[in-house]
Write a structure and sequence with these properties.
Radius of gyration: 20 Å
Helix content: 40-55%
Shape: elongated
Number of helices: 4
Distance between the termini: 53 Å
Length: 101
Protein backbone atom coordinates (compact mmCIF):
# COMPACT_ATOMS: atom_id res chain seq x y z
CA UNK A 1 0.00 0.00 0.00
CA UNK A 2 1.31 3.43 -0.93
CA UNK A 3 2.41 5.75 1.86
CA UNK A 4 1.61 8.89 -0.14
CA UNK A 5 -1.89 10.01 -0.99
CA UNK A 6 -3.76 13.02 -2.27
CA UNK A 7 -3.67 14.46 1.26
CA UNK A 8 0.13 14.19 1.61
CA UNK A 9 1.91 17.47 2.24
CA UNK A 10 4.90 18.64 0.21
CA UNK A 11 7.03 18.02 3.31
CA UNK A 12 5.84 14.39 3.46
CA UNK A 13 6.49 13.92 -0.26
CA UNK A 14 10.01 15.34 0.06
CA UNK A 15 10.65 13.04 3.03
CA UNK A 16 9.44 10.02 1.02
CA UNK A 17 11.75 11.02 -1.84
CA UNK A 18 14.73 11.29 0.53
CA UNK A 19 13.91 8.17 2.56
CA UNK A 20 13.51 5.96 -0.51
CA UNK A 21 16.33 7.32 -2.66
CA UNK A 22 18.61 4.56 -1.29
CA UNK A 23 16.58 1.84 -3.05
CA UNK A 24 19.60 0.69 -5.09
CA UNK A 25 21.97 0.61 -2.12
CA UNK A 26 19.43 -1.28 -0.03
CA UNK A 27 18.39 -3.51 -2.99
CA UNK A 28 14.77 -2.74 -2.11
CA UNK A 29 12.08 -2.99 -4.76
CA UNK A 30 9.56 -1.54 -2.29
CA UNK A 31 11.74 1.54 -1.84
CA UNK A 32 12.17 1.88 -5.61
CA UNK A 33 8.40 1.83 -6.11
CA UNK A 34 7.89 4.39 -3.32
CA UNK A 35 10.67 6.56 -4.82
CA UNK A 36 8.95 6.52 -8.21
CA UNK A 37 5.68 7.51 -6.55
CA UNK A 38 7.39 10.38 -4.74
CA UNK A 39 8.90 11.57 -8.04
CA UNK A 40 5.46 11.54 -9.65
CA UNK A 41 3.99 13.54 -6.78
CA UNK A 42 6.85 16.06 -6.93
CA UNK A 43 6.45 16.48 -10.67
CA UNK A 44 2.74 17.11 -10.24
CA UNK A 45 2.81 19.27 -7.13
CA UNK A 46 5.77 21.58 -7.58
CA UNK A 47 6.02 24.52 -9.89
CA UNK A 48 8.75 24.68 -12.49
CA UNK A 49 9.57 28.22 -11.49
CA UNK A 50 8.34 30.43 -8.69
CA UNK A 51 9.43 33.92 -7.72
CA UNK A 52 8.53 36.39 -5.01
CA UNK A 53 9.77 39.83 -4.12
CA UNK A 54 10.80 40.99 -7.58
CA UNK A 55 14.41 41.20 -8.73
CA UNK A 56 16.00 41.17 -5.29
CA UNK A 57 13.62 38.65 -3.76
CA UNK A 58 13.79 34.90 -3.51
CA UNK A 59 13.54 32.67 -6.55
CA UNK A 60 13.08 28.93 -6.75
CA UNK A 61 13.48 26.89 -9.90
CA UNK A 62 12.44 23.27 -9.80
CA UNK A 63 14.26 21.03 -12.26
CA UNK A 64 11.65 18.67 -13.62
CA UNK A 65 14.16 17.13 -16.02
CA UNK A 66 16.21 15.82 -13.09
CA UNK A 67 13.13 14.32 -11.43
CA UNK A 68 12.14 12.63 -14.69
CA UNK A 69 15.64 11.19 -15.10
CA UNK A 70 15.65 9.90 -11.51
CA UNK A 71 12.21 8.37 -12.01
CA UNK A 72 13.29 6.71 -15.28
CA UNK A 73 16.44 5.33 -13.64
CA UNK A 74 14.41 3.89 -10.76
CA UNK A 75 11.87 2.39 -13.18
CA UNK A 76 14.63 0.67 -15.16
CA UNK A 77 16.25 -0.62 -11.98
CA UNK A 78 12.90 -1.94 -10.75
CA UNK A 79 12.26 -3.69 -14.09
CA UNK A 80 15.67 -5.38 -13.91
CA UNK A 81 14.86 -6.66 -10.44
CA UNK A 82 11.64 -8.19 -11.70
CA UNK A 83 13.51 -9.91 -14.54
CA UNK A 84 16.21 -11.35 -12.29
CA UNK A 85 14.06 -12.94 -9.61
CA UNK A 86 14.30 -9.85 -7.42
CA UNK A 87 17.92 -10.39 -6.43
CA UNK A 88 19.37 -7.54 -8.45
CA UNK A 89 21.73 -9.94 -10.15
CA UNK A 90 21.43 -11.70 -13.47
CA UNK A 91 21.67 -15.46 -13.13
CA UNK A 92 23.64 -17.54 -15.59
CA UNK A 93 23.49 -21.31 -15.65
CA UNK A 94 26.36 -23.10 -17.31
CA UNK A 95 26.14 -26.21 -19.39
CA UNK A 96 27.62 -29.52 -18.29
CA UNK A 97 27.59 -30.74 -21.87
CA UNK A 98 31.40 -31.02 -22.14
CA UNK A 99 32.00 -32.15 -18.56
CA UNK A 100 34.55 -34.92 -18.13
CA UNK A 101 35.39 -37.05 -15.12
Amino acid sequence: MATLSSTSTLEEINAAYDDNSSYHEDASTAKAAAFITACRFLLRRTAKRAASGGRGGQELEHETRLLREEMESASKWLARQSGSGGTGQTRYFGSAHDFRD
